[in-house]
């Protein structure tokens, strides 16, 4: 299948690209600069030489019409995977830095497809657990989160701080996508992938570990000694491995039954303390940097796991066929990948 993948330089997109190419799809991926394209090209020399992989430069998805030229391709696209969206808290303006690129990026690509790429049948959008969770209910004991819910965040609440802004950016962008489908009745169907915390090996180009993607930063913090005196609070107690998230994106356009559905892709519960425990068990070289059993913090709420919401990932298993990787495998492979980058 001829596929357009946005945000090819990202943590999740790099794995998605890998799955796409291994399954024989022909891919155009968007990146913000030629330099980023060249770095991916170096990793996939054979694929670029034989024309299986090429690039389109889209410097800013928040610009109106950013994808107008990109969606036109020969041979024409049949599927589009939209992963590009800001996920970091290093911002000055929630509206400009988070909401606009997430929302305009999503509605923009859908409009461009509708206008100029009638051959596209399937669009898969990377949404998030952030678009499902209701942060106001906290740990919400006894509640089971599933695809049935939307984060009820308002625009006013979104502007309060970067974390609220990020969660809102994912919520508003996903809602805008479903509204687009309903109002515009395009030729394509949409699926969304809604992961919680994504851990796992980094395979995208990285100048240094200082620019590590947001969700993996806590694993690095643990290995570098940041939790020696106190383990950071966990916040969100559910996680998934990046390779399973990548597979979910590709399966979602390959499988007809996935059309028109959201997928809550979650492997299990975790707390930050478990990250440190897995590193300690598998990497004795970091023993001095890690917290011990008596270090405070990083636990489930008092009362344990039963004080935290549960999750329903049945749809992702039944329809996408996911088999979730274990927490230990995910953390071990993450640390090994950091070691290849100089940890
Ligand atoms: P990354 O930061 O690695 O990837 C984000 C990607 O989006 C990068 O390629 C980035 O390009 C691109 N991007 C951001 N803003 C713009 C913009 N204005 N114009 C063009 N490109 C832009 O993070 P992830 O891989 O983790 O995130 C990928 C997707 O997954 C996002 O939609 C995120 O919300 C979602 N997600 C991630 C989770 C996680 O725990 N990691 C959990 C749930 C959802 P560049 O690097 O060049 O700036």
Supply the key terms:
alpha/beta, 7-stranded parallel beta sheet, Rossmann fold, 12 strands, 343 residues, binds NADPH dihydro-nicotinamide-adenine-dinucleotide phosphate
Distance between the termini: 38 Å
Largest sheet: 7 strands, parallel
CATH superfamily: NAD(P)-binding Rossmann-like Domain
Report the portion of residues in β strands. Answer: 5-15%
Fraction of residues in helices? 25-40%
Total discrete domains: 1
Q: How large is the radius of gyration?
A: 20 Å
**CATH T-level fold name:** Rossmann fold
Weakly predicted, low-confidence segments: none
Verbal overview:
Strand 4 (79-82), helix 4 and strand 5 form a beta-alpha-beta unit. It contains eleven helices and twelve strands. The chain has helices at residues 11-22, 34-43, 45-49, 94-116, 155-158, 162-184, 217-223, 242-254, 272-282, 314-318, 327-340; strands at residues 2-6, 26-31, 53-57, 79-82, 122-126, 144-145, 189-194, 197-199, 238-241, 262-264, 268-269, 310-311. Helix 4 (94-116) packs parallel to helix 6. 37% of the residues lie in helices and 14% in strands. The site of NADPH dihydro-nicotinamide-adenine-dinucleotide phosphate has 26 residues, from helix 1 and strand 8. This is NAD(P)-binding protein. Belongs to the NAD(P)-dependent epimerase/dehydratase family. Dihydroflavonol-4-reductase subfamily.
Brief overview, please?
Belongs to the NAD(P)-dependent epimerase/dehydratase family. Dihydroflavonol-4-reductase subfamily. The chain has 343 residues and is α/β, with parallel strands linked by helices.
